[in-house]
Design a protein that fits this description.
With 348 residues, the protein is of the alpha/beta class. It contains 12 helices and 11 strands. It folds into 2 domains: 167 residues, 3-Layer(aba) Sandwich (Rossmann fold); 164 residues, Glycogen Phosphorylase B (Rossmann fold, 3-Layer(aba) Sandwich).
């Protein structure tokens, strides 16, 4: 017997790739049900998304009749089923599992209106998943019952980065990638200014408009995903400088760099310490410490043996512990502990 799961993740057919490798739930005994696309003009959907934070790409009321469980992941996709759950008896009969990324940070920093919306979303969920242990206290302090909370390991698609890539020729000394709000390019610029260390940066050029970028930074702008993957296989060191946020900002690039055989330098934030260990699987300078960041980069570039040892450990770490499947296996365990999952051995 399988558990039918109504999924809100902005995809509407099984022919589309499922974000974060959701297909890995199916062998564990789950039947994925994707609501049909909402018959709304793209412009209307965009306005709703930007004004209220809702993704309304999918409709779910009719599909909910056939579901044992509702799963929504990432905040814009959670908002709509959470609203339906508050508003309709039919959706209230189906447990809602939400996997949140940045909600804890917004509970700490957003305005009152946004915090109220987040609390309402969280209150609609029977299970609240998130990606680092430090967020637990934030959620509890904002009224989320502790027995709802589930810490999950963020997963990447390790199949995009064959282990053999670690031995390929690497002609890019230092690469830095990313453009979310957590990136701290000011500290990176200060770290390499005058060092002669060339850093290839994949990020929108406008991110550097108000920053005195030194000659060492070569900003490419944004690139297609395939080119990004190719750059990772050419980089010796990948630097992910971040601010201290409540969630593990930068974890995708840092973990994909590790899986691709790069030596990783990532800021030692409380959230990121769930994913890397300083000196073991990454070099982790303190937040906003430009001299320490420079020292970590120079140390790895100047010591190929040390760099190779770090790569060996971090590559194995990423492939063994942070594949997409690990995320969904962990969620399956959380659902079983709450009697929301299929019986053991009930896989398809």
């Amino acid at each position: 017997m399988t558990t039918r799961v109504l999924v809100f993740n902005s995809t509407t057919t099984r022919a589309e790739p499922q974000p974060y490798g959701l297909e890995a739930l199916e062998p564990l005994g789950y039947d994925l049900v994707l609501p049909p696309r909402a018959p709304l003009p793209r412009k209307v959907r965009d306005v709703v998304h930007h004004r209220w934070g809702f993704q309304v790409d999918q409709l779910g009321l009719r599909a909910s009749r056939r579901a044992d469980l509702t799963l929504a992941y990432l905040e814009p996709n959670i908002a709509y089923p959470a609203m339906l759950r508050h508003a309709t008896p039919r959706m209230r009969r189906t447990p809602l599992v939400g996997i949140f990324c940045w909600a804890a940070e917004e509970l700490l920093t957003a305005d009152d209106v946004r915090r109220r919306r987040l609390r309402r979303m969280l209150s609609a969920c029977d299970v609240v998943g998130f990606f680092s242990r430090n967020q637990r206290d934030v959620f509890v302090s904002h009224g989320v019952a502790e027995d709802k909370l589930a810490v999950l390991p963020f997963g990447i698609d390790t199949s995009q980065f064959p282990v053999s890539a670690a031995g390929e020729e690497r002609d890019i000394p230092v690469l830095s990638v990313g453009w979310d709000r957590g990136r701290d390019y000011d500290t990176l610029a200060r770290a390499v200014d005058g060092s002669g260390i060339g850093v290839t940066v994949v990020a929108p050029r406008e991110r550097f408009a108000d920053l005195s970028a030194p000659a060492e930074l070569d900003v490419l702008g944004t690139v297609p995903h395939a080119e990004y993957r190719a750059l990772l296989t050419r980089a010796q060191v990948v630097v992910v400088p971040t601010h201290e946020l409540a969630y593990p900002t930068g974890q995708t690039v840092a973990m994909e760099a590790a899986a691709a055989g790069c030596a990783v330098v990532v800021t030692r934030t409380e959230a990121m310490e769930d994913y890397f260990t300083d000196g073991v699987t990454a070099a982790m300078p303190p937040v906003a410490d430009a001299p320490a960041l420079r020292a970590r980069i120079e140390g790895l570039l100047g010591d190929p043996t040390r760099r190779s040892e770090l790569v060996t450990r971090s590559l194995e770490h990423a492939h063994q512990h942070f594949d997409h499947a690990r995320l969904w296996q962990a969620l399956d365990g959380e659902l079983r502990s709450r009697n929301l999952a299929p019986a053991r051995g009930a896989g398809r």
